[in-house]
Amino acid sequence: MKKDCLEIVRSKCENCSGCALAKNRKNVVFSDGNPSTAKIVLIGEAPGEMEDETGRPFVGRAGQLLNDFLSDAGISRDEDVYLINTVKCRPPENRVPTEAEQTACRKFLNAQIDIINPRAIVLCGATALKTFVQLDKKQTISKVRGQWMTINVDGKDYRAITIFHPSYLLRNNSMAEGSPRRLMQEDLANIKNEILPDVDHSMDKNDVVFMEPREIAMV
Ligand code: SF4
Q: Is the pLDDT of residue 214 over 70?
């Protein structure tokens, strides 16, 4: 049922020309992960070159680094996480998507969250954080990351937490106490303990999804 609903949204994305990013895309980068078993929605910024080529989010060096961190924390990218971006098409030169582009794409993002109905949303990097949380001047991702909060998406509350984006970690190799990579490890361990304490991957194959996704509200 979730897959069917998501295919409807995917089809709308693939035919979308709702913002200027449609012009130069090679592929719409819709999602990755197993919607039937995912308990977490992880949201990044926007597709990069490799994502645009392959149509999959979080590939290339940054994606591999994320895979390594998830795996180390006992979180399965394939089973536990549904990965998406704030916009589905690649911004030129990998620039940050504009507010107008994010607004145009928001209906797809919200629909994906609604259909997955996750236990938690992980905001990966500053752009994803700012999409959902209004920050004051003193709040930076370094101060906000690792803190549980509640965010509201289309009238429904979700637990959420912010982590560093793996692209940032590629530029920060240190594993010293308090380094970004060490904090990433701590944040993912926190997420595993809080959100997935009961997950046994050998059981997931027999899972039955009883919850009907709410009606997809597409503007
Ligand atoms: S980024 Fe989103 S709104 Fe813009 S063209 Fe792609 S799918 Fe449509």
A: no
Rounded to the nearest angstrom, the distance between the alpha carbon of 97 and the centre of ligand 1 is: 11
Six token digits for residue 44: 């990044």
- Which residues, at least 6 apart from 109, have a Cβ–Cβ distance to it below 8 Å? 43, 84, 86, 131
CATH topology of domain 2-197: Uracil-DNA Glycosylase, subunit E (3.40.470)
DSSP-assigned letters across all residues of 99-139: HHHHHHHHHHHHHHHHHH--SEEEEESHHHHHHH----TT-
105 ligand 1 Cβ < 6 A: yes
Q: What is the DSSP string of 167-212?
A: HHHHT----STTSHHHHHHHHHHHHHHHH-TT--HHHHTT----PP
Residue with tokens 């709702």: 18
Q: CA nearest 97: which of 18, 157, 26?
A: 18
C-alpha to C-alpha distance for 138 and 143, rounded to whole angstroms: 9
Residue whose Cα lies nearest atom 6 of ligand 1: it is: 89
Q: What is this structure's pTM?
A: 0.91
> Pick the residue with more confidence: 17 or 139?
17
For the chain, what are the domain ranges? 2-197
